[in-house]
Amino acid sequence: MIKEQILALLEERKFKELKELLETVHPVDIAEMLEDISKKQMILIFRLLAKEEAADVFTDMNSDMREYLINTLTDSELEEVMDEMYVDDTVDVLEEMPANVVDRLLMVTDEDTRKKINALLQYPEDSAGSIMNIDYVSLRREMTVEEAILKIRQVGINKETIYTCYVTEKKRLIGVVDVKDLLTAGEARLIEEIMDENVLCAKTLDDQEEVASSIRKYGLVAMPIIDHENCLVGIVTVDDAMYVLQDETTEDISIMAGVSPNEDSYFGTSVFRHAKNRTLWLMLLMLSATVTGEILRHYEEAMSVMPVLITFIPMLMGTSGNCGSQSSTMVIRGLAVGEIEFRDFLRVIFKEIRVALVVGLLLAAVNGIRIYLMYNQDIMLAFALGVTMIAVIVMAKCIGCTLPLLAKKIGVDPAIMAAPLISTIMDTCTILMYFTIITAFFRLGG
Amino acid sequence: MIKEQILALLEERKFKELKELLETVHPVDIAEMLEDISKKQMILIFRLLAKEEAADVFTDMNSDMREYLINTLTDSELEEVMDEMYVDDTVDVLEEMPANVVDRLLMVTDEDTRKKINALLQYPEDSAGSIMNIDYVSLRREMTVEEAILKIRQVGINKETIYTCYVTEKKRLIGVVDVKDLLTAGEARLIEEIMDENVLCAKTLDDQEEVASSIRKYGLVAMPIIDHENCLVGIVTVDDAMYVLQDETTEDISIMAGVSPNEDSYFGTSVFRHAKNRTLWLMLLMLSATVTGEILRHYEEAMSVMPVLITFIPMLMGTSGNCGSQSSTMVIRGLAVGEIEFRDFLRVIFKEIRVALVVGLLLAAVNGIRIYLMYNQDIMLAFALGVTMIAVIVMAKCIGCTLPLLAKKIGVDPAIMAAPLISTIMDTCTILMYFTIITAFFRLGG
């Protein structure tokens, strides 16, 4: 609705009203809307935005739109936008741009900012340093609360978050003061009296996902980041942490579906890139599945004696694959949120075996009755299939819960051990187990 | 390490040192440690905690431990803990307790709090109302910044978050003021001059996941919640939002693995509960798989003429299942993070068909060469399998991306349309397509 209003005002060239309307719309929503309209309209609207809002909208855009804007805006327009952006956001923008665009952007930033940007660009991808914000409020222990508030008043206007202030001594982090404590403590009290010395902090080279998880775990609004000399160099804020966690989850889910993750969005990824991300696993699994095919062929004779055997194959393979991926998924998620660790190995296996027995008995009973009724009341066949079903389910649950834990232990992403790989492995194991049990039961040649 | 230190001090009955040590440990970590030690030790340590810390630790515990504590502590001890807890946390605790425990807890809370608790307990599960915090700072438009800061000083000490203050008029929400704006604006300015009137807010009955997603999308520290008369009744804070998003993701991932989600942790769920959560889907899929079995049986004759046909079944079923779940997973995640919507239907299908053609051609080529080399250079067989492979992959990707979108459209959770269901459906479709193509190619009777 807002979108239609905006486009109508643009159409009628009522720029003043449009400008006023845009001031009431959240930058995130403006960025979202700009994605859906023509490039020409986008530029027109972008130029109408107030300086600060333009910077916010620019930060929230996707990289294609940003690149287009950078190529279209004049140097002075670009400079205005860059001036209003936070350094960490600028770095995020630069990391996605081709070299010539980066040069142009760096040319319009002042030297001080350029130095900061270059420092941040040094941190490895996915490190805490690469997502941290270098604007924060630092206090000294001997300040009074009144002086601290005065300092926030003076410098705070440029800081992305001032909810937590950091107390430093020779740049070393020695305490934290919540703005709530500043406001509720007496004005004459000293910072060192009210500061909390048990500071949770992370290192610049720590994995961004770990930092984000800690922010969630401890309910922080920001986590201070220190360098190898324990000097405070920046903070990671909760809003960035939420995005990191979302991206990492998307990555996990992709891997769990046998898709190599990439950072772009679904529509932002080209067809060939999508194909490339998916083919590797498919190829590998396709070739592994030929093993199952060869084993099947090995039992050709048994199947020609008892043709009914073939009808149970999809059911057994399907059930074992599903059972295995249920277990592996539970364990993968448990590992991801920190509930399960490798030391829980035996506890997990013991639990899964018990679950498998309960589930196996239930499925075997239902399936046995079905087979008894559908296949001339052949009680022997129903029983043999029941035994196979229980054996296959116990095996599936054991393998399913073991593989992610082993992967974690050897430093491989446990998410790889999800449905696609597990069900391919289970197919082979199931066929082997099925024919071993069946040939023993009915004394068929293997 | 800290854990060993704590237990050693407890062993030596050095309670004073232990008390001091505990003050330096984060409540979240204390709660985590208490889970790992004996109940007797837990009670001892819990009683040593300072009042406020005890309340925080209690909030962070799992429900089993809480119930044990409630049954062990005296009424006056319990009262002390409850007095320090935030009302929304108390409600979270109560929602998980059996009725007799709830009664006991309500008996030790004062009437004012009891009223608030009862009001919060009315909101449906998973609604914004059920997770909101009723402690927040409200200001009036005619206050000066100085008066506002004074008000925060007076009441703020009991409020869980004061980072954002809300401006109300006859209880209606008319604006928001960030504490940053209060600190950086001149003391004499009026709240109405500095407040932002474009307030993002949610209703008490809105889904908690939507509210949490908005908090992430707009980078808020809290979202105000209004009732049906537009009166401000509470706020949802970013730390609660992060937990909601994590729980909802875990729920999605469970459903995607064919496991009915439940709110307890992996180890906190009993074996029978685990079995119950997993059996429904397994049963359903097992019975559906019998259809595939019957279809296979229908083509018994074709397989007895060309026994090699059976060897390709696991590979084809595996590949189609994996292709289908790749597509469905991408779409399910896209829907969950709000990138894909139902109106993108045609765009998604068009993209998936192109991806399928690229992937299909590649896999068909590799597979064709393998068959040509392994099966007496039978070029006809290699070609027939190649055609089947491409057809099956295109079908898998189309069905895989369509089902989650349709589920969303009719109001069913798209996560259901993940690997287990998709691969069962794909098994049936694959067998049908395989034998249709093969019997046509080699003129075999169906």
UniProtKB/TrEMBL annotation, chains A, B:
<dbReference type="Pfam" id="PF01769">
    <property type="entry name" value="MgtE"/>
</dbReference>
<comment type="similarity">
    <text>Belongs to the SLC41A transporter family.</text>
</comment>
<dbReference type="InterPro" id="IPR038076">
    <property type="entry name" value="MgtE_N_sf"/>
</dbReference>
<dbReference type="InterPro" id="IPR006669">
    <property type="entry name" value="MgtE_transporter"/>
</dbReference>
<keyword id="KW-0129">CBS domain</keyword>
<keyword id="KW-0460">Magnesium</keyword>
<protein>
    <recommendedName>
        <fullName>Magnesium transporter MgtE</fullName>
    </recommendedName>
</protein>
<keyword id="KW-0812">Transmembrane</keyword>
<feature type="domain" description="CBS">
    <location>
        <begin position="195"/>
        <end position="251"/>
    </location>
</feature>
<dbReference type="InterPro" id="IPR046342">
    <property type="entry name" value="CBS_dom_sf"/>
</dbReference>
<keyword id="KW-1003">Cell membrane</keyword>
<feature type="transmembrane region" description="Helical">
    <location>
        <begin position="379"/>
        <end position="406"/>
    </location>
</feature>
<dbReference type="InterPro" id="IPR000644">
    <property type="entry name" value="CBS_dom"/>
</dbReference>
<dbReference type="InterPro" id="IPR006667">
    <property type="entry name" value="SLC41_membr_dom"/>
</dbReference>
<keyword id="KW-0813">Transport</keyword>
<feature type="transmembrane region" description="Helical">
    <location>
        <begin position="353"/>
        <end position="373"/>
    </location>
</feature>
<dbReference type="Pfam" id="PF03448">
    <property type="entry name" value="MgtE_N"/>
</dbReference>
<feature type="transmembrane region" description="Helical">
    <location>
        <begin position="418"/>
        <end position="442"/>
    </location>
</feature>
<comment type="function">
    <text>Acts as a magnesium transporter.</text>
</comment>
<dbReference type="InterPro" id="IPR006668">
    <property type="entry name" value="Mg_transptr_MgtE_intracell_dom"/>
</dbReference>
<dbReference type="GO" id="GO:0015095">
    <property type="term" value="F:magnesium ion transmembrane transporter activity"/>
</dbReference>
<keyword id="KW-1133">Transmembrane helix</keyword>
<comment type="subunit">
    <text>Homodimer.</text>
</comment>
<dbReference type="GO" id="GO:0005886">
    <property type="term" value="C:plasma membrane"/>
</dbReference>
<dbReference type="InterPro" id="IPR036739">
    <property type="entry name" value="SLC41_membr_dom_sf"/>
</dbReference>
<keyword id="KW-0472">Membrane</keyword>
<dbReference type="GO" id="GO:0046872">
    <property type="term" value="F:metal ion binding"/>
</dbReference>
<dbReference type="Pfam" id="PF00571">
    <property type="entry name" value="CBS"/>
</dbReference>
<feature type="domain" description="CBS">
    <location>
        <begin position="132"/>
        <end position="193"/>
    </location>
</feature>
<keyword id="KW-0479">Metal-binding</keyword>
